[in-house]
Amino acid sequence: MEPLRPKAGFFRFKPHAILTFAIALLWIQLPASSEAMTIAAGKPYHGRLVNGIPFPDQFRGFRIGSPDRSYTTPEVIGTLLDAVEAVQREYPNTCELFIGDLSASGGGRLCGHKSHQNGRDADIGMYARGNRPLGRFALMDASNLDVAKTWVLMENLLKSGRVQYIFMDRELQKLFHDHALRSGWDKGYLDRIFLDVGSRFDKAVIRHARNHRNHFHVRFYTPWSTLAASVDKHDSRQQAVIELAQQAYLPKRVHYYANGSETGLPSLARSFGVSLKDLCRWNGLKENDVITPGTCLAFYKRGFELEPVHLAQTLQPPLNPAERPVQVASVNLRQLVASHPNSGASPGKPQRATNKARPFTVHKVAPGDSLWAIARKHRVSLKALCAANGIQSRETLKAGSTLKIPSSQSRSEPSKTVASSVTLRPGDNLWSLARRHGTTVERICRLNGIDRSATLKPGMRLRLR
C-alpha cells in the first residue's frame, strides 16, 4: 500500500514495555521543490487546488463516494478523520459514514457544484437510525435521521476550530438545535452557531442552504494550504515550513520489521495501537498467519501533531545574511530548531566564556510529556533544554525520568502564573486554553482525566494545575 504522499511522514512511536521493537520510522523528507506542498488557491467558488491529496482509504468508519472527486487539503483530512474517529469511540459498532464530493485533482469547476474548487469544501452524509448503512445521500427528517450520532460528528467538527461554515436545510438545523439543548448545551451558545434557529446571530456557522436535506456541506479553514498560495515560488524555506505544518494533519505510515520475538499478529496490533482487522487488511494477511523474522509490516498511525505546527509558527528567516540558505531537500527538525531565534544566543552579542555551573531545577517526566511541551511549560528554548540534558530533540521520553531545566538566565521570558481552574467559554478548545493560560494540552488532559479528543462544552470547569 502506498503512503499518502511520495515522501514519508514523521511519527513518534512509544513502544510497550512487554515487547522490544525494531521500528523503522519514515522521517520527514522535504523535497527540493514545492511539488509536495498542497496549495488552496483562490476562492471556494473560483479557485484551484495544487497537489491536492485524495482522501485516505486506509481507515474505517467512512466510505468515499467518488475517488476522482475526493481531493482536498491536509487540514481537511485531519479534521474529518478526527470527527469520524470521535463518533466511532462513542458508538463503537457504528456503520460507515458516506462522504460525497470534495474537489477534483486540480480543483476548478466540479460538475454539479458552484464551489468545491480549491479543496476547502466537503459534502458529508448523515447517520440513519437503526445503524443502517447508506451507500449514497438519503433525504433525512425526524423519522430516519440519527440526530444524536450525527450531532457527535458535527460538534467534533465545530470544536476543531477549522470550520468556517456548515450548510444544511433549516428543518435539520431545528432537529440538531433541539437535541443539543436537551443534552445540556448552553442556549446562548447554540443560538450563536445556528443562523436559522433561535436569535439568528448573523455570524453563525450553521446556515440554511437549499437542496441540503440529504447531506451537509462543510467549508473549512485551511490556513497552511491557503498561505501556500501567497508564498514566493523561489522561497524554498517558506515552502519547507508550510509543508512541515501540513504534515501534522496527515496519517503516518510506519514500517515494523519482525525480529522473531513476536507472539503473533494480535499482540502486535495491540502494541501498535491499531485493530487486528486493520493490520491484516493493510498487509494482506490473515489473523492466524505466522510472521517470520525479517518480515516488514506496515501500519498507519494518525492524530494531529502540535509540535511541527508550533515549530513552523515560530520559525524566522536566518539572522545571518551571509549564511548559506537551507536546502529544502535537507531540512530536518534539528536544522529548523537551530535556526529559531530562541534556540541560541542573541545575535551580535559576544558570549563570555564561563566555568561556573548553572543552577538547574528538575522536571519529572509525566505520561504524554514531550521535550517541546516541557520546554514551553518552563519557558526555555528546546535547544537549551536538550543541551542541559545531553539529548537530541527527537528523543523519546520515559515517564518517571527526570530532566534538568536550565536556570532563568536561559529562559526566553518569565513564567506566567497559571490559574487553578477555568470555566469554558463558547469557542474554547484545549489548544486555546493552553495558550491563554501558559500551560500545555497534555497537562490539561492529565489533570482532568481526558484525552485530546474530549468534547468540551461551554460552562464546563477544567483544572489547570
UniProtKB/TrEMBL annotation:
<dbReference type="GO" id="GO:0008932">
    <property type="term" value="F:lytic endotransglycosylase activity"/>
</dbReference>
<dbReference type="InterPro" id="IPR005073">
    <property type="entry name" value="Peptidase_M74"/>
</dbReference>
<dbReference type="InterPro" id="IPR018392">
    <property type="entry name" value="LysM"/>
</dbReference>
<keyword id="KW-0645">Protease</keyword>
<keyword id="KW-0479">Metal-binding</keyword>
<dbReference type="GO" id="GO:0004252">
    <property type="term" value="F:serine-type endopeptidase activity"/>
</dbReference>
<keyword id="KW-0574">Periplasm</keyword>
<feature type="domain" description="LysM">
    <location>
        <begin position="420"/>
        <end position="464"/>
    </location>
</feature>
<dbReference type="GO" id="GO:0008237">
    <property type="term" value="F:metallopeptidase activity"/>
</dbReference>
<dbReference type="GO" id="GO:0030288">
    <property type="term" value="C:outer membrane-bounded periplasmic space"/>
</dbReference>
<keyword id="KW-0482">Metalloprotease</keyword>
<dbReference type="InterPro" id="IPR009045">
    <property type="entry name" value="Zn_M74/Hedgehog-like"/>
</dbReference>
<dbReference type="GO" id="GO:0046872">
    <property type="term" value="F:metal ion binding"/>
</dbReference>
<keyword id="KW-0378">Hydrolase</keyword>
<dbReference type="Pfam" id="PF03411">
    <property type="entry name" value="Peptidase_M74"/>
</dbReference>
<dbReference type="GO" id="GO:0006508">
    <property type="term" value="P:proteolysis"/>
</dbReference>
<feature type="region of interest" description="Disordered">
    <location>
        <begin position="402"/>
        <end position="421"/>
    </location>
</feature>
<keyword id="KW-0862">Zinc</keyword>
<protein>
    <submittedName>
        <fullName>LysM peptidoglycan-binding domain-containing protein</fullName>
    </submittedName>
</protein>
<dbReference type="InterPro" id="IPR036779">
    <property type="entry name" value="LysM_dom_sf"/>
</dbReference>
<feature type="domain" description="LysM">
    <location>
        <begin position="255"/>
        <end position="299"/>
    </location>
</feature>
<keyword id="KW-0732">Signal</keyword>
<feature type="domain" description="LysM">
    <location>
        <begin position="361"/>
        <end position="405"/>
    </location>
</feature>
<feature type="compositionally biased region" description="Polar residues">
    <location>
        <begin position="404"/>
        <end position="421"/>
    </location>
</feature>
<dbReference type="Pfam" id="PF01476">
    <property type="entry name" value="LysM"/>
</dbReference>
